[in-house]
Design a protein that fits this description.
By secondary structure, the chain is mainly α. The chain is built from 18 helices and no strands. The longest helix is centred in the middle third of the chain and has 29 residues. Its main location: membrane. Keywords: Cell membrane, Membrane, Transmembrane, Transmembrane helix.
Length: 399
């Protein structure tokens, strides 16, 4: 038996403290994604220091992604009725300590173990934080707050990872890890200071996760969209550097600027989608991604590549926030359960996309990654159109 605690009527607009809490969560997501992708920019020096090949160092990205996919629903279930503020602080603390351990170790096995702990913290934090906006701000501002929280993902790509890579280049990869770990402890202090108490409304049970996926068509459609969009995106985007260099002749000097522009476009797309109807946004996103990936495969030249990459960034930037809004709208009574499933499927889709893209490059050709991405996003267009039709309210039947 569960009991609910009635809350006083929420104001129409959130106060400064509420927005400080939202920004603290945003900074937490920013820190998670920066730390997750950190080895990508520091691959060579980490390989030398840890005494393993660059391909083996790649496991420091793969392992936490897989662990996060498992830990997101698991942490949500095991959390029971623990206050979510306390849990978020513990999880970001685990992320910070794991990143600190990675910076200090000289043994690859210890680094892998630290990244396992990091993956647990990342999956659990994201699962709880992704659906937190309705508990922090009034109803009219939930869309805006959700967009801010998910902007941490795009901001990490634009600012976090390049900054950490720069620190690693001018100092060492250990200094970069220490800097990210320090940022994690700053997030911990901000969450402790600004987050209100967040008592659990009810304990999430494993059966609830299964029911959401099997019986809620809106949730099922959202998860299928994640699989198609994120898998398709990472099938091609994992190899975006050779695509731009080999297929479009983009020079190494212009590549960094172009990827920076892609990230800025992604942040813009995130906020544009956060303030619009999610289904219309997803229709525009899926169509744009299908067209862009096909155009990149069919055309050539750096000028065309610049335009297409900016459109790609603008479109993909709205994926996370739009699908999260669809899922929360389909299961408003279970925000933690639905967000945990969202995070699990999202991380699995990243791993699947990178794997499929690698096989396509090795066995077929580089342009094949773009055609696979185009096919996946074209299927996503069909899912958006049919799921919207399927969820229209039906006339009530007489008993």
């Amino acid at each position: 038996m569960t009991t609910s605690i009635s809350a006083p009527p929420a104001p129409e607009r959130a106060g400064a403290r509420a927005w400080a809490a939202v920004l603290s969560v945003t900074l937490g997501i920013f820190t998670l994604v920066t730390a997750e992708m950190l080895p990508i920019g520091l691959l060579s020096p980490m390989s030398s220091a840890l005494g393993v090949s660059e391909g083996t160092v790649g496991l420091l990205v793969t392992v936490p992604g897989v662990v996060a996919a498992v830990s997101a629903p698991l942490v949500t279930v095991l959390a029971g009725t623990v206050d979510r503020k306390l849990l978020l602080c513990l999880l970001i603390g685990a992320v910070s300590l794991a990143t600190l351990a990675t910076a200090l170790t000289s043994a690859f096995a210890v680094a892998v173990l630290a990244r396992v702990v990091f993956g647990i913290g990342m999956g659990g934090f994201w699962a709880l934080a992704g659906g937190l906006a309705p508990r922090l701000v009034p109803e009219p501002q939930v869309g805006k707050a959700t967009a801010w929280i998910f902007s941490g993902v795009a901001a990490a790509s634009v600012l976090g990872v390049p900054a950490a890579t720069f620190i690693g280049d001018v100092s060492s990869w250990r200094t970069a890890c220490l800097a990210v770990a320090g940022l994690g402890f700053v997030v911990l202090a901000a969450l402790a200071l600004y987050l209100p108490g967040l008592p659990a409304h009810h304990a999430v049970r494993p059966r609830e996760l299964g029911v959401l996926v099997r019986r809620n068509r809106g949730v099922a459609a959202g998860l299928v969209l994640i699989l198609l969009l994120v898998t398709g995106h990472f099938t091609a985007y994992t190899f975006v550097r050779p695509i731009l260099e080999d297929l479009h002749g983009v020079g190494a000097g212009a590549l960094s600027a172009l990827l920076f522009g892609y990230g800025v476009a992604g942040i813009t797309g995130n906020f544009l989608a956060g303030n619009r109807d999610p289904r219309r946004s997803l229709l525009a996103i899926t169509l744009a991604l299908a067209v862009v990936t096909a155009a990149l495969a069919l055309t050539g030249g750096p000028v065309i590549a610049v335009a297409l990459m900016l459109i790609w960034g603008l479109a993909y930037g709205g994926v996370s926030v739009s699908i999260q809004k669809v899922l929360l709208g389909a299961a408003p009574e279970s925000p933690e359960a639905v967000t945990s499933v969202f995070v699990a499927v999202f991380n699995l889709a990243i791993a699947a996309g990178a794997l499929i893209g690698g096989r396509a490059v090795d066995l077929i050709s580089l342009p094949a990654t773009l055609w696979i991405a185009c096919a996946a996003t074209a299927l996503a267009v069909v899912v958006v159109l049919t799921s919207g039709r399927r969820e229209r309210p039906q006339p009530a039947r007489r008993r």
